[in-house]
Amino acid sequence: MHEHDRIVGPLGGLWLLLASIPLFLFTPDGIASDNPLLASVRQGLKDVVNTVKQLKHYSNIATYLLARMFFNDGMAGVLVFNGVYASGTFGWDTIGLLLLGIFTSTSAMVGAYLGGLVDDKLGSIKTLKIAIGMTTLILIGLVSMQPDSIFFVIPVSTEPVWSSPYFNTIAEIIYLLMFQVFALFFVTGLSASRTLMAKISPPEMATQFFALYSLSGTVTAFLAPLLVGTTTAFFQSQRAGFASLILLMVIGAVMLFLVKEERSTVAPD
Predict the structure, then answer these.
(1) What is the DSSP string of 133-171?
(2) How far apart are CA 153 and CA 15, in angstroms?
(3) Pick from 77, 91, 9: which is nearest to 242 by CA?
(4) What residues have CB less than 8 Å from 173, skipping those under 6 apart?
(5) pLDDT for res 32
(6) pLDDT for res 211
(7) Domain topology for 56-256
(8) Which candidate, 212, 63, 181, 183, places its Cα nearest to that of 125?
(9) Is there a contact between 169 and 96 (Cβ–Cβ < 8 Å)?
(10) Is this model's pTM higher than 0.90 or not?
(11) Cα atoms in the Cβ-side hemisphere of radius 13 Å centred on 241
């Protein structure tokens, strides 16, 4: 009945609830409001509708949000389907994937810190372009891995190189290390994308645009699974399905070159 797998969802929900309590108890709102909840919701929706109607004025932000829909779906898809691909390619079991997740979380923390330093040095849009470019190249490297070959054409031994029951062949070790680099650049891209949104949005409308930013990250959440599933079924190849995410990342990266790192002004009424 897969009880040990199914219990993961409730445990994750419980952890989210417990970890949110300090936020709700000790983090005050920046601006207190005496407006009734329903009136605030109506005003918020009205503001969003007005902002959408004025997208021509905010074309730079609109282009960025559209670009983010693609590259964010692509990078997030790699994070999700990486375990599926590794399991199908190398036969990693639940423990192996758990270890992969632990290592990846550590690499992501390092990426968040280093990404902030790069952002301060180069600017958000350059950092984001580097992150997308590197994650795309690494994805190509990931799909090049097979148990008996690396980088598509280089044959390697399938014999264990050490006594560990996990990640004990040359291809598995290289795959694991490459994905840690992916996680580093992926989180760098996440942090830089938020910073860029803050830099190009009018401060007076930051709440509205970050709401649209969040929406753009979820409205096409089906795109990566649909693309991977369709491509895998069409080519009868897990490798082809995983590699199809490159398309989303490339589209987002190309559109990003149309975005300027300059702050928009509030549209006149």
Answers:
(1) HHHHHHHHHHHT-BTTEETTTEE---S-SSS-SSS-SHH
(2) 44
(3) 77
(4) 161, 167
(5) 64
(6) 82
(7) Growth Hormone; Chain: A; (1.20.1250)
(8) 63
(9) no
(10) no
(11) 25
Sequence-separated contacts (24+) of 264-267 with Cβ below 8 Å: 264/57, 264/58, 264/60, 264/61, 264/200, 264/201, 264/202, 265/202, 266/202, 266/204, 266/205, 267/54, 267/57, 267/58
Helices (H), the chain: 3-6, 8-26, 37-53, 59-90, 94-122, 124-143, 170-200, 206-216, 223-235, 238-243, 245-256
Residue 269, number of CB atoms within 10 A of its CB: 5
Size of the chain, expressed as the number of residues it contains: 269
Question: What pLDDT is attached to residue 118?
Answer: 93
**pLDDT of the residue at 30:** 66
How far apart, in Å, are the Cα atoms of 246 and each of 109, 180, 251? 24, 18, 9
Give me the residues of the chain with pLDDT under 70, please. 30-34, 269
* Residue 240 tokens, joined: 């082809």
Count of other CB atoms within 10 angstroms of residue 90: 18
Per domain, the residue ranges of the chain are: 56-256
The residues, ordered by sequence, that sit 6+ positions from 17 with a Cβ below 8 Å of its Cβ are: none
Instruction: Please list, residue by residue across 92-107, b when 16 or more beta carbons sit within 10 angstroms of its beta carbon and e when fewer do.
Output: beeebbeebeebbeeb
Instruction: Tokens for 207, please give them.
Output: 């709440």
Residues 6+ apart with CB under 8 A from 94: 5
| Residue/partner pairs of 47-52 with CB below 8 Å, 24 or more apart | 47/208, 48/208, 48/211, 48/212, 51/205, 51/208, 51/209, 51/212
Pairwise CA distance, residues 56 & 123, whole Å: 25
